[in-house]
């Protein structure tokens, strides 16, 4: 059975809009969740429109496979801005169908399939593609063939750009991290300790102290207390 993600289009739209408010110059790409675009072009269009309405000037990414190329061609024919193509290689939303969360394109047949997908997306009008969990040498060969940028995640250093999900390289969640996720910091340990210390401080009334509180002029405080007399029961 294909692994499905419970994230909705509305949730993605809300998160994209929030991220858009903090972006000044970086390229913002939003993923359409599983089940929101695979059936047909007609299914995908209103969902992409919802993201654009909440966050203009963003790019949409359909993390599907062959259907993604068809969608890109349809958008291109209608004169719309070409979008980021689907992820080639490991697609987390359908990892089970691909044999689990493991590297893809590790046989000649599968590597050629990834190349065919990427070239189809380029021809369809996609402005970029993402390679995830693909052998570095395979990604390098395909990147050299494409004229559009290739963003890599677990695809070696020969791609045109790199992306890595924050919880993976900052280790916010427990469990085994992917091989391609270098651990730059152990944030989970730091965050857990900070929250625990905060809880102890509140329970023992060590926090907040005067240092973390606002003050009021003594004369204003006296006037406030006098005025409170009107509310006494």
Account of the 3D structure:
42% of the residues lie in helices and 9% in strands. The N and C termini lie far apart (66 Å). It folds into two domains: 155 residues, TIM Barrel (Alpha-Beta Barrel); 48 residues, no CATH class. Helix 1 packs parallel to helix 2. The chain is α/β, with parallel strands linked by helices. The chain is elongated and about 80 Å long.
What Rg is obtained from the alpha carbons, in whole angstroms? 25 Å
Top CATH class of the largest domain = Alpha Beta
Number of helices: 8
Q: Strand pairing plus helix content: what structural class?
A: alpha/beta
* Major sheet characteristics: 4 strands, parallel
Distance between the termini: 66 Å
Which bin fits the share of residues in helices? 40-55%
Q: Kindly state the number of beta strands.
A: 6
Query: What is the CATH homology-level superfamily of the largest domain?
Result: Phosphoenolpyruvate-binding domains
The CATH architecture of the largest domain would be Alpha-Beta Barrel
CATH topology of the largest domain, by name, is TIM Barrel
Run of helices and strands:
HEHEHEHEHEEHHH
Estimate what percentage of residues fall within beta strands. 5-15%
Low-confidence stretches: 74-82, 93-100
Inertia-based shape: elongated
Strand order of the largest sheet: 3-4-5-6
How many domain units?
2
Mean pLDDT: 80
């Amino acid at each position: 059975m294909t692994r499905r993600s419970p994230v909705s289009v509305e949730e993605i739209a809300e998160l994209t809009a929030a991220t858009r408010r903090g972006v000044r110059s970086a390229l913002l790409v939003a993923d359409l969740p599983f089940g929101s675009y695979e059936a047909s072009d007609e299914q995908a269009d209103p969902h992409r429109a919802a993201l654009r309405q909440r966050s203009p000037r963003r790019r949409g990414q359909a993390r599907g496979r062959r259907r993604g190329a068809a969608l890109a061609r349809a958008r291109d024919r209608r004169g719309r801005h070409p979008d980021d193509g689907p992820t080639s290689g490991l697609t987390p939303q359908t990892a089970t169908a691909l044999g689990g969360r493991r590297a893809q394109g590790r046989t000649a047949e599968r590597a050629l399939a990834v190349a065919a997908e990427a070239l189809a997306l380029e021809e369809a009008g996609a402005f970029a593609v993402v390679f995830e969990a693909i052998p570095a040498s395979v990604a390098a060969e395909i990147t050299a063939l494409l004229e559009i940028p290739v963003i890599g995640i677990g695809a070696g250093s020969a791609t045109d750009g790199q992306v890595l999900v924050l919880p993976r390289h900052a280790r916010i969640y427990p469990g085994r991290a992917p091989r391609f996720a270098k651990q730059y910091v152990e944030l989970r340990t730091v965050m857990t300790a900070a929250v625990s210390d905060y809880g102890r401080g509140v329970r023992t009334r060590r926090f907040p102290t005067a240092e973390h509180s606002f003050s009021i002029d003594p004369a204003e405080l006296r006037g406030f207390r006098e005025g409170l007399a009107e509310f006494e029961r």
